[in-house]
């Protein structure tokens, strides 16, 4: 039995945190999981080029071991979660709160929901600064374990897929090295126990994405996309730094004798208990939301994400399914106590997080309609689905948001890798010009892509239906045949979510038609990809089918109660550092209504492409991708709307041409003026004065004084030489006379002196 006092760790104010330093060995040593791909990075970087397969074998091996350890850690967590639920935990909490003793007397008095402690927490001292100790360690609980499994699984499949996709690449070894570091950075982020450690891993994720997006940096669009991603994320990262700093000092003000604290559990627990200033929490939440907007592609900082498709497709799959873009969503989930109190999510009808998420779902889905590039369709789809997750967190549907993150990882990775398989065959990502009719040549790619699309659209019984439906339920805004409950009446968010569901179904129907139906519009003879591409596709497609069954709603017919809501049971924290949230009850009417909406989106898009466009193609005798006399050609307003979408709401024009260009122009002009008038003026003045000083020295000192002395000494030497030359006659008697005279002079001097 774990030591009760250890189990019931508290803050300096006596508030239970809901963490323990006990637990299974794997839970206490979860740091090994990010350490393995980090070790892979070092090994590939130094020895990869000497290995038979360029280092890819080392990356696959160590990421594979990390995946196995993640599965074992998940099994240990399931056992830990079930074993510590009950009287032992209640007794530990009572001891911590002073309502009883370890024997169990009065153990239930004063117990509040959410207090049972389950998270495994281990730290070591990182460094000390004055009286503040900075630690590094792990916080292992449900969301962390779930993310460990998802990240390692998707990363492993991406590693295997990449061995064929980037075979023969000039930087093959470099690619696999940073692929491993990318995975390690994300794994470190999900187990971080404090915000400073989270900040470091957050930045590592950004650096790795910069390197991998710009992998083919020789082409300017690729390097531009990498820089755009890096700089846009730096804008949001300033919010993260400011938010973390505010929370550090705010927590310090609530803890006696402490300057501050970066502890995630401590910060959340104090926020949930009402010990922190609401104003400080609101400001910190707004700052942290800026980081979420940039990292997770939320409106208005989403513009970098579609351009990031310039990187290799495996990188796109890893970024969009399991690493970079979900980092922001996970950060909200991890710091949920701060956001829940800061934005007053409970009992509300709108807040900043829910609004940003809701708008993002719509703007991303609309932009997906006008893309030619299959990867950009999926990129805007990711933006839309990330908006779904952020909206869910904003309405208090925490479990639904994490469940959608879980299911989305599988079907979105399947779709991205499927798009790469199709592009690999036709050597292009352009659906309109170079694809079409691929279902016959690439049956495996076609089938897995359709499965992923159905899951993304949210049709039962695939995974996307269950997670999407939970988000809609969590809005609490239905109110038909019993309602759904939840944490407030977010009816506006419900409407945006339902509209997005229809748009998603429609644009994926368009994507399937343009890629796999009609006549082939490209060049050459496309063929099915090899097993190293196909096998990962089928694994992900299978998970897209069954993953939703892990969280079947309560009361689901023909399913034992023990198999219902398993995901929420093991993933949602039950601890003082997690706020007490309400869960919406399942609504069959809402599920049926949302399914009908999805079917209507598929039906309308299917009617347009499979009937109208097909008929127009046959009439024209060639494969068409749209009607020649469509709405945009007949109605000016429709054309304006289409142009508005094609220009991506003119946000790139705003950022690049107006803000950046408007800044660069005046700044460059001012810098040029300073350079010419100030710097060059100073340099020229110094040069001119130096010339004047040189002339003065030359004419007034060098010529008359220095040269005069030299010339005078020369003339004196010359005169002395002439005089001495007259003495040197060559006659011995003359020299004897001189010698005798000198001796007489010296003798006289000696006589006088002595």
Tell me what you see in this structure.
The protein has 754 residues and is mainly alpha-helical. Among the domains are: 359-626, no CATH class; 652-753. It is built from 30 helices and three strands. It has helices at residues 4-7, 25-28, 32-47, 56-83, 87-97, 142-165, 172-191, 195-213, 220-254, 264-272, 278-295, 304-307, 313-321, 324-334, 336-342, 352-368, 374-394, 398-426, 431-434, 438-441, 443-457, 463-474, 491-516, 531-546, 566-571, 588-620, 631-634, 636-646, 651-727, 732-753; strands at residues 19-20, 119-129, 132-140. A three-stranded mixed sheet has the order 1-2-3. Strand 2 and strand 3 form a beta hairpin. Helix 13 runs antiparallel to helix 18 and helix 14 packs parallel to helix 17. The chain is elongated. 51% of the residues are buried. Mean pLDDT is 87; it is low at 1-8 and 86-117.
Features of the shown structure:
three-stranded mixed sheet, 754 residues
Number of strands: 3
Quickly give the structural class: mainly alpha
The total of helices stands at 30
Distance between the termini: 115 Å
Q: Major sheet: order of its strands?
A: 1-2-3
Work out the helicity level: 55-70%
Strand content: under 5%
Low-confidence stretches: 1-8, 86-117
Mean pLDDT: 87
């Amino acid at each position: 039995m774990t030591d009760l006092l250890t189990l019931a760790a508290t803050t300096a104010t006596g508030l239970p945190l809901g963490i323990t330093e006990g637990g299974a060995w794997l839970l206490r040593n979860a740091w090994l999981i990010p350490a393995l791909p980090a070790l892979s990075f070092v090994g590939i970087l130094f020895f990869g080029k000497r290995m038979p397969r360029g280092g890819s074998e080392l990356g696959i091996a160590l990421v594979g071991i990390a995946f196995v350890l993640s599965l074992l850690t998940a099994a240990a967590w399931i056992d830990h979660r079930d074993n510590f639920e009950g009287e032992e935990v209640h007794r530990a909490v009572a001891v911590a709160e002073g309502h009883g003793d370890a024997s169990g007397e009065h153990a239930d008095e004063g117990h509040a929901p959410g207090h049972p402690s389950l998270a495994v927490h281990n730290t070591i001292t990182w460094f000390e600064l004055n009286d503040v100790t900075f630690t590094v360690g792990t916080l292992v609980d449900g969301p962390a374990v779930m993310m460990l499994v998802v990240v390692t699984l998707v990363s492993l499949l991406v590693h295997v897929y990449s061995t064929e996709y980037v075979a023969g690449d000039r930087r093959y070894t470099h690619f696999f090295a940073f692929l491993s570091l990318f995975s390690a950075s994300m794994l470190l982020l999900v187990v971080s126990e404090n915000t400073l450690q989270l900040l470091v891993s957050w930045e590592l994720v950004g650096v790795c994405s910069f390197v991998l997006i710009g992998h083919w940096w020789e082409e300017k669009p690729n390097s531009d996309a990498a820089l755009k991603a890096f700089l846009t994320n730096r804008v949001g990262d300033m919010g993260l730094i400011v938010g973390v700093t505010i929370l550090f000092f705010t927590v310090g003000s609530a803890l006696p004798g402490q300057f501050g604290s970066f502890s995630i559990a401590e910060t959340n627990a104090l926020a949930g208990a009402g010990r922190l200033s609401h104003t400080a929490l609101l400001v910190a939440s707004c700052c942290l939301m800026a980081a979420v907007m940039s990292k997770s592609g939320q409106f208005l900082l989403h513009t970098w994400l579609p351009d990031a498709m310039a990187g290799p497709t495996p990188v796109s799959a890893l970024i969009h399914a399991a690493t970079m873009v979900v980092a922001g969503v996970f950060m909200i989930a991890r710091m949920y106590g701060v956001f829940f109190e800061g934005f007053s999510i409970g009992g509300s009808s709108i807040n900043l997080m829910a609004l940003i998420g809701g708008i993002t779902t719509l703007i991303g889905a609309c932009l997906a309609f006008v893309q030619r590039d299959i990867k950009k369709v999926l990129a805007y789809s990711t933006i839309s689905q990330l908006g779904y997750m952020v909206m869910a967190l904003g309405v208090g549907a925490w479990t639904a948001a994490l469940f959608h993150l879980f299911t989305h990882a599988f079907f979105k990775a399947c779709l991205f890798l499927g798009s790469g398989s199709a592009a690999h065959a036709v050597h292009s990502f352009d659906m309109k010009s170079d694809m079409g009719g691929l279902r016959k040549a690439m049956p495996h790619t076609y089938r897995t892509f359709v499965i992923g699309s159905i899951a993304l659209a949210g049709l039962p019984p695939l995974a996307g239906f269950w997670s999407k439906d939970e988000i809609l339920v969590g809005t609490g805004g239905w109110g038909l045949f019993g309602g759904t409950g939840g944490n407030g009446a977010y009816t506006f968010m419900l409407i945006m979510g339902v509209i997005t569901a229809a748009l998603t179904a429609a644009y994926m129907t368009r994507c399937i038609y343009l890629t796999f139906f009609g006549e082939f519009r490209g060049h050459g003879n496309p063929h099915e990809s090899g097993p190293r591409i196909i096998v990962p596709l089928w694994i992900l497609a299978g998970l897209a089918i069954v993953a939703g069954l892990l969280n079947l709603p309560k009361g689901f017919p023909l399913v034992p109660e023990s198999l219902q809501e398993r995901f929420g049971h093991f993933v949602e924290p039950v601890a003082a550092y997690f706020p007490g949230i309400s869960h919406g009850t399942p609504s069959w009417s809402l599920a049926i209504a949302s399914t009908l909406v999805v079917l209507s989106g598929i039906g309308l898009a299917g009617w347009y492409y499979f009937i109208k466009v097909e008929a127009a193609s046959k009439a024209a005798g060639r494969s068409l991708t749209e009607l020649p006399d469509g709405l945009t050609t007949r109605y000016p307003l429709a054309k304006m709307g289409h142009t508005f979408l094609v220009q991506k709401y003119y946000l790139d024009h705003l950022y690049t041409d107006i803000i950046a260009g408007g800044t660069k122009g005046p700044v460059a002009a001012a810098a040029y003026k300073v350079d010419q008038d100030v710097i060059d003026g100073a340099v020229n003045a110094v040069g001119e004065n130096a010339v004047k000083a040189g002339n003065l020295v030359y004419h007034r000192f060098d010529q008359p004084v220095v040269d005069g002395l030299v010339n005078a000494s020369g003339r004196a030497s010359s005169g002395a030489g002439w005089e001495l030359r007259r003495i040197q006659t060559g006659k011995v008697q003359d020299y004897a006379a001189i010698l005798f005279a000198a001796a007489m002079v010296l003798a006289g001097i000696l006589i006088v002196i002595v």
